[in-house]
């Protein structure tokens, strides 16, 4: 499109530019909403385009997209060809309704997004091509959560999961708020009927054109009108043969008239719209569809539909707000409004009034632009688009409803609690780092499923009672919205529970069968075996049986977990079971889609691989072959970076120093030359994200360091050379999705710096993924790497005065970090931020740092307390010695010196150990070696670290306002204490050192060393139980039992009387077995009342554990009390310790004597 002067339109130039099309390719994953509907060749191309650096492929796709755009722009009769598939939606009065979903070829979808860019973004400047929201995008109201345009090149729209969570959470928080304050007395849910198909595209056309920038030239305006017309009007692609059309069943579904339209009077219908009955009367159905072979409304499923739907909702939302003033929340066509404007007796009339206002607004557009519309509509379609098929309106039959907030029951008020569980669980699902955590989350999902199901059953019972009593509003309110939300939550929890279950099943043959049966219950929806067998063989003839099978299927399918169950089932199923599933899907599809409509079946298309469609490659093969975003970068590295391969460390130093002096553009050019074109194509994307620069730099540095090129944070050399800290620090930055080049350059990580030359302690690789998941920020992760190195270095030679003390080095720190993650995922109440994790992880490394410090000798001289007392004791001992008349002999002097040495050594040990938490805090504050940490961060880390030695009452008694602060100081202190106490396994001590040095150990050290050797780690898991069997979502209706299971190599259960019962823990005498005892935290251990049992009310194993873990028991008791009293904790809390005997007691008589003597001494104190 050129002007009279021959210049091409500015907008057309940008539309067809390589940078615009590459942006559409780059964001591909964010807008292919119906991947399963793509043809096999398009699926393959989709996977190939996961590699955004394949120059040949990108160039070919770009040219194909340009060609497609030109076809659409230059040919007035060329439209997007959309295939439609009918997805089963719901059964209404025994009749199956479908959701029509549209798709088209992948090249056209990329072309669509390239064209859509003109409307959602400003045309970028050539010198500084930043993505900026267009005038139109900025019109989207702030309370619209769905499909908001993103300015991040990776995503056309902001991620829907995050946005939908915000919509749910904010509306649920508002429900709680207004239920309490009654500032608004009603919550209104408005449900638009058949939204996308009933939108008349021409109304959106005029609305958008009316808000385009006033500065557009005439030729640019013509182009924008043409592009918009091609985005709005799409032609149905019936495929071959050309005579193919919908069956009567599918045509009825596609062209059904909305109920709110059908209910209008004929007079109103004639005044407002053209009646489609005329069309139907004039032509037989097949001809009618063929002559009107355009998509009805907006093509749901294609990339443009959701943005265009939002634009239409601006018009609708204004009418909603004018009728119900208050606070609103919108997610495309879903809406929740809190208002005082409900007229209870006239609510139906208010809904009808809204529909009339929407219809009036639509008619204004149609009449105002009547003549222009004739040119806008595709040829011979005016009658189709102005028929009563169109006209957005609310459901009038209960789906749009209101709730009086003062009549809500507790379950609905606390719906937000379940919503938060859903939000948190969704996040936790992808951040599990142990099997225990996976199983705990699985149990949580299972109990939440049960609780939500119980509430759904309760609602169903209430609904039946309502029908029986024939009550009317407002005596019994409509609970549909509440029920719909619960169903959504049930789907969420059930699906994730099955996913987690698949991770550990099958553990054996019987377990595999149990798991299969669980999945089969979902897939086959509880149909009896004999009936199912006859059904899949096509031998079910009874209409009643078919109806029952379809109803069962739809109930399972509409819960959105059926597809997931089928996918998981195929992983374990045998060939015969796969065949059975195949036949079941085929027969179910026949029940859904009548003969002749198979071509348009969503099920047939989605499960074509299962049903025997012999595509060139399976989905699994596509993933393996193409889903490597570094594929082309690896190839380019081998071609262009040959001179960097297998170099000495000094050469790597030289190149790294040179890279750091180069500009970003120069680094990208190392792999991408300007001549080949991809460098220029990436210009717009590169200006708006650092991901491309990051990936290029990661490729170059990884190749130089001879490390596998990927984004995985766990590194290993491909050669025999060791990985250095400098290499680890650089790659940790470059593999982090939060990478910022400015911060990377500021760090100035120079390989020749002695700090960076040291060989990496590989234990850090156990926590690198944890750092990426929970801390995220690459600068903070770099600080953690430096701290790991620092702690490793200072502990390398151990502690001079604590040679018989258990390990407190970087290994201890890593265990604590893993413990913290495990605790967070196990104890539901604890929720902390990324900065909390960072501070906690630093505290894990530094909380014992003073224990390597050698105390000053002068300290002994100036100490007038303990040192003077010790000196006096030694003096008295010396005087009491029976010395020979001629003075002490050499042996006496040596004995005295040895005794003095031991006592002075013990003095310094106690100085180091006794107040190490305070000394460590002081060291954290003042040590220059960790000056890379901000002063404020060091202060907080010091405070958290010091807390690990505080009295539990001072920690749990502190008031906390974590929800109002950036940091959760109280939670952080609790977590560091628990993590430290749980590091009790035998790796912390050396068995040979114990055997050779036990005589030289203090009584306390010997007891703890032996106890550590007997302790084989721990498991922390949860069990859940619903307290309120009737259903209900209010807090404390579920008990979360935290179970600390500690396996020990100790089977000594000698029974004896306990002279001093424990105050903070009670043994459960009803569950004592040969291999296990169970302790209930937070309860006093009462004496057995039966006289003949008084001598048997305790045992050695219990006594030993309680003495060894006194601090842990007190901590868990305080934790239980805190969790139980906190009103914000959704779960009731119980805590148990299960001590499991894994083998017979295997220590010698002397070691057992040490344990026994120490226990007796402690129990008598």
Top keywords for this entry?
1165 residues, alpha+beta, five-stranded mixed sheet, four-stranded antiparallel sheet, 53 helices
Question: Would you write up a description of this structure?
Answer:
With 1165 residues, this protein is of the alpha+beta class. The protein is 54% helix and 8% strand. It has 53 helices and 14 strands. The strands form 4 sheets. A 5-stranded mixed beta sheet has the order 8-9-14-12-11. It has a 4-stranded antiparallel beta sheet with strand order 5-6-3-7, with helices on one face. Helix 34 runs antiparallel to helix 35 and helix 41 (834-846) crosses helix 48 (969-981). It is globular. It starts with 9 loop residues before the first helix and ends with a helix. Mean pLDDT is 85; it is low at 269-291.
Protein topology:
Layout: H1 10-15, H2 18-26, H3 40-48, H4 55-74, E1 80-92, E2 95-103, H5 106-120, H6 160-181, E3 186-191, H7 201-210, H8 218-232, E4 234-236, H9 248-254, H10 259-262, H11 266-272, H12 276-282, H13 285-291, H14 304-323, E5 326-331, E6 334-339, H15 347-368, H16 370-376, H17 382-385, E7 401-404, H18 410-413, H19 415-428, H20 435-469, H21 480-504, H22 509-523, H23 529-536, H24 543-557, H25 562-572, H26 575-592, H27 602-606, H28 619-626, H29 631-640, H30 649-661, H31 664-671, H32 678-681, H33 683-688, H34 691-705, H35 725-734, H36 741-747, H37 754-757, H38 765-775, H39 778-794, H40 810-826, H41 834-846, H42 857-862, H43 866-880, H44 890-914, H45 916-926, H46 935-946, H47 952-956, H48 969-981, H49 991-997, H50 1003-1014, E8 1019-1026, E9 1038-1048, E10 1055-1056, E11 1065-1067, E12 1076-1081, E13 1098-1099, H51 1100-1108, H52 1110-1125, E14 1132-1141, H53 1149-1163
Parallel strand pairs: 1-4, 9-14
Antiparallel strand pairs: 1-2, 3-6, 3-7, 5-6, 8-9, 10-13, 11-12, 12-14
Helix pairs in contact: 2-4, 2-5, 4-5, 5-8, 6-19, 7-8, 14-15, 19-21, 20-21, 22-25, 29-34, 31-34, 34-35, 35-39, 38-39, 39-41, 40-41, 40-48, 41-46, 41-48, 43-44, 45-46, 46-48, 48-52, 50-53
């Amino acid at each position: 499109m050129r002007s009279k002067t021959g210049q091409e339109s500015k907008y057309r130039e940008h539309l067809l530019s390589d940078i615009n099309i590459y942006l559409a390719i780059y964001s591909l994953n964010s807008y292919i909403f119906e991947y399963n509907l793509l043809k096999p060749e398009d699926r393959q191309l989709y996977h190939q385009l996961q590699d955004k650096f394949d120059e040949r492929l990108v160039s070919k796709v770009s040219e194909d997209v340009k060609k497609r755009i030109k076809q659409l722009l230059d040919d007035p009769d060329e439209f997007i060809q959309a295939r439609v598939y009918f997805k089963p939606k719901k059964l209404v009065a025994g009749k199956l309704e479908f959701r029509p979903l549209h798709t088209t070829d992948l090249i056209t979808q990329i072309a669509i997004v390239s064209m859509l860019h003109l409307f959602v973004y400003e045309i970028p400047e050539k010198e500084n091509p930043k993505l900026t929201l267009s005038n139109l995008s900025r019109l989207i109201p702030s309370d619209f959560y769905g499909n908001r345009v993103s300015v991040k090149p990776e995503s056309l729209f902001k991620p829907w999961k995050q946005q939908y969570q915000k919509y749910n959470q904010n509306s649920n928080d508002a429900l709680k708020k207004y239920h309490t304050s009654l500032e608004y007395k009603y919550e209104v849910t408005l449900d638009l009927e058949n939204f996308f198909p009933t939108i008349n595209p021409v109304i959106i056309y005029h609305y958008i054109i009316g808000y385009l920038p006033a500065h557009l030239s005439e030729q640019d305006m013509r182009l924008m009108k043409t592009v918009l017309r091609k985005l709005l009007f799409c032609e149905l692609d019936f495929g071959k043969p050309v005579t193919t059309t919908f069956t009567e069943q599918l045509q009825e579904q596609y062209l059904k008239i909305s109920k709110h339209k059908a209910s209008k009077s004929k007079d109103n219908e004639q005044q407002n719209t053209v009646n489609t009955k005329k069309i139907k009367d004039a032509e037989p159905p097949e001809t009618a569809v063929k002559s009107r072979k355009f998509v009805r409304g907006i093509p749901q499923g294609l990339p443009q539909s959701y943005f265009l739907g939002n634009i239409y909702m601006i018009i609708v939302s204004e009418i909603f707000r004018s009728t119900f003033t208050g606070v609103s929340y919108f997610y495309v066509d879903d809406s929740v409004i809190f208002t005082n404007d409900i007229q209870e007796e006239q609510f139906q009339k208010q809904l009808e009034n809204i529909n009339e206002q929407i219809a009036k607004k639509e008619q204004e557009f149609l009449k105002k632009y009547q003549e222009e519309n004739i040119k806008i509509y595709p040829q011979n379609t005016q009658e189709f688009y102005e028929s009563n098929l169109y006209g957005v309106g609310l459901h009038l039959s209960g789906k749009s409803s209101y709730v009086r907030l003062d009549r809500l029951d507790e379950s609905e008020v606390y719906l937000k609690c379940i919503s938060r569980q859903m939000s948190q669980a969704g996040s936790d699902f992808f951040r599990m780092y142990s099997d225990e955590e996976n199983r705990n989350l699985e149990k949580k999902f299972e109990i939440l499923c049960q609780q939500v199901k119980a509430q759904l059953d309760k609602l169903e019972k209430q609904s039946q009672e309502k029908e029986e009593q024939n009550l009317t509003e407002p005596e019994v309110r409509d609970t549909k919205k509440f029920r719909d939300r619960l169903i959504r939550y049930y789907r969420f929890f059930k699906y994730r529970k099955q996913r987690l279950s698949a991770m550990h099943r099958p553990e054996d043959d019987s377990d595999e069968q149990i798991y299969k049966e669980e999945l089969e219950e979902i897939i086959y929806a509880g149909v009896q075996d004999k009936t199912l067998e006859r059904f899949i063989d096509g031998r079910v003839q009874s209409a009643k049986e078919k109806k029952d099978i379809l109803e069962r299927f739809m109930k399972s399918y509409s819960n959105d977990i059926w597809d997931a169950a089928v996918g998981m089932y195929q992983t374990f199923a045998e060939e015969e079971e796969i065949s059975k599933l195949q036949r079941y899907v085929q027969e179910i599809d026949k029940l859904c889609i009548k003969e002749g409509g198979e071509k348009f079946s969503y099920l047939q298309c989605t499960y074509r691989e299962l049903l025997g469609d012999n595509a060139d490659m399976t989905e699994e093969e596509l993933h393996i072959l193409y889903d490597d975003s570094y594929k082309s970068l690896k190839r380019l590295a081998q071609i262009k970076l040959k001179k960097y391969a297998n170099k000495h460390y000094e050469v790597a130093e030289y190149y790294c120093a040179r890279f750091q002096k180069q500009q970003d553009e120069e680094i990208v050019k190392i792999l991408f030359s300007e001549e080949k074109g991809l460098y220029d194509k990436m210009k717009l994307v590169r200006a708006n994200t650092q991901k491309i620069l990051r990936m290029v730099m990661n490729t170059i540095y990884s190749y130089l360091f001879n490390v596998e090129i990927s984004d995985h944070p766990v590194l290993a050399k491909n050669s025999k050379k060791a990985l250095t800290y400098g290499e680890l620090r650089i790659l940790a930055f470059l593999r982090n999705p939060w990478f910022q080049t400015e911060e990377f350059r500021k760090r100035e990580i120079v390989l020749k710096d002695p700090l960076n030359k040291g060989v990496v302690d590989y234990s850090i690789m156990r926590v690198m993924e944890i750092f990426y998941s929970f801390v995220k920020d690459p600068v903070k992760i770099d600080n953690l790497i430096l701290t790991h190195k620092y702690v490793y270095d200072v502990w390398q030679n151990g502690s001079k005065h604590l040679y018989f003390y258990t390990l407190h080095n970087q290994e201890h720190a890593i265990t604590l970090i893993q413990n913290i993650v495990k605790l967070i995922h196990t104890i539901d109440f604890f929720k902390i931020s990324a900065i909390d994790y960072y501070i906690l992880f630093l505290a894990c490394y530094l909380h014992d740092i003073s224990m390597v410090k050698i105390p000053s000798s002068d300290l002994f001289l100036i100490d007038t307390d303990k040192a003077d007392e010790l000196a006096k004791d030694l003096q008295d001992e010396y005087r009491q010695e029976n010395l020979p008349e001629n003075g002490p002999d050499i042996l006496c002097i040596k004995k005295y010196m040895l005794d003095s040495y031991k006592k002075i050594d013990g003095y310094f040990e106690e100085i180091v150990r006794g107040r190490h938490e305070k000394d460590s805090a002081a060291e954290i504050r003042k040590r220059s070696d960790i000056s890379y940490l901000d002063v404020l961060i060091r202060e907080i880390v010091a405070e958290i670290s010091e807390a690990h030695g505080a009295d539990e009452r001072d920690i749990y008694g502190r008031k906390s306002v974590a929800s109002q602060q950036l940091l959760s100081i109280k939670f952080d202190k609790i977590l560091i204490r628990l993590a430290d106490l749980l590091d009790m396994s035998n790796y912390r001590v050396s068995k040979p050192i114990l055997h050779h040095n036990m005589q030289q150990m203090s009584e306390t050290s010997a007891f703890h060393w032996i106890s550590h050797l007997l302790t084989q780690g721990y498991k922390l898991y949860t069990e859940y139980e619903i307290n309120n069997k009737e259903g209900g979502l209010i807090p404390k209706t579920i008990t979360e039992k935290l179970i600390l299971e500690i396996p020990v190599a100790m089977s000594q259960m000698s029974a004896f009387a306990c002279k001093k019962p424990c105050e903070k823990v009670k043994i459960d005498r009803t569950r004592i077995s040969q291999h296990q005892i169970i302790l209930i935290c937070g309860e006093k251990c009462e004496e057995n009342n039966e006289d003949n049992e008084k001598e048997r009310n305790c045992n050695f194993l219990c006594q030993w554990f309680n003495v060894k873990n006194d601090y842990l028991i007190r901590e868990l008791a305080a934790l239980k009390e805190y969790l139980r009293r906190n009103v914000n904790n959704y779960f009731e809390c119980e805590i148990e310790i299960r001590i499991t005997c894994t083998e017979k007691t295997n220590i010698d008589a002397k070691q057992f004597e040490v344990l026994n003597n120490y226990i007796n001494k402690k129990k008598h104190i």
